[in-house]
Amino acid sequence: MSDASRAVEIPLFPLGTVLFPGGPLPLRIFETRYVDLVRHCLRDDTGFGVVLIREGVEAGGPAATFDVGTYARIVDFSRQPDGLLGILAQGGRRFRIVERRRARDGLNLADVEWLDDPPPCSLPTEFADLPPALDAALTQLGEPFASLERHPDDAAWVAGRLVEILPLPAVHKQHCLELDDPVERLRYLRPLFEIGQD
Predict the structure, then answer these.
(1) Does the CA dihedral 193-132-170-110 come out positive or negative?
(2) Which of 15, 124, 139, 190 has a CA positioned 20 to 30 A from the CA of residue 133?
């Protein structure tokens, strides 16, 4: 399942949301450990792992997370009107955590193995109703979704964007992230929502 023979160390950013490859992730950074992480990522042109919290909270103390997450890179940053640092990250490759630890500053670190990207897969005709509805929803949501490059014929892209914007419990989103086949993700999602129905 992994294309790496050995694990690599990355910093983790436990969140209450699931990030998919290609997806946008706007964040407001206020904890010192994450301000330092952002500074390091920008200086060294590296990223961080986004993992869904299984138990615990985003800010403050430790949080138990799921094992599968998405590597993110910062694509934009700015100082917010309230003085906090705002960043926009974009999802890259999926990974699986092999081993976890905490740095002295409280930052979560993990050895991870990269998960193989699914082979390119065209959107099956049974889901032909999804791209127009998805395009309208992304436009209506505004930035950063409205300016995303569209790939309406790519099953992985359609599945990822749907999962990101649908108001589903995080555990369903995590399940989709852990599925390797994008068409399987779409089939899992179909009973959870209805699009294009009056």
Answers:
(1) positive
(2) 15
Q: Are 141 and 129 in contact (CB under 8 A)?
A: no
Find out whether 71 and 92 touch, Cβ atoms under 8 Å: yes
How many other CB atoms sit within 10 Å of the CB of residue 180? 13
* pLDDT tens-digit readout, 1-14: 444 457 899 999 99
Under a CB-based contact definition with an 8 Å cutoff, are residues 20 and 164 in contact? yes
Q: Check if the beta carbon of residue 11 is closer than 8 Å to that of residue 109.
A: yes
Q: In terms of C-beta density within 10 A (0-12 exposed, 13-18 middle, 19 or more buried), how is residue 198 classed?
A: exposed
Residues in the chain: 198
Question: At a CB cut-off of 8 Å and minimum separation 6, what does 59 contact?
Answer: 30, 31
In the chain, % of residues over pLDDT 70: 91
The CA-based angle 111-171-161, given to 5 degrees, is 85
- Predicted local confidence at residue 59, as pLDDT: 62
Other C-beta atoms within 10 Å of 41: how many?
19
Backbone angles phi, psi at 185, to 5 degrees: -60, -45
Catalogue all structural domains in the chain, each as residue range(s) with its CATH number: 8-114 (2.30.130.40), 125-192 (1.10.4060)
pTM, entire model: 0.87
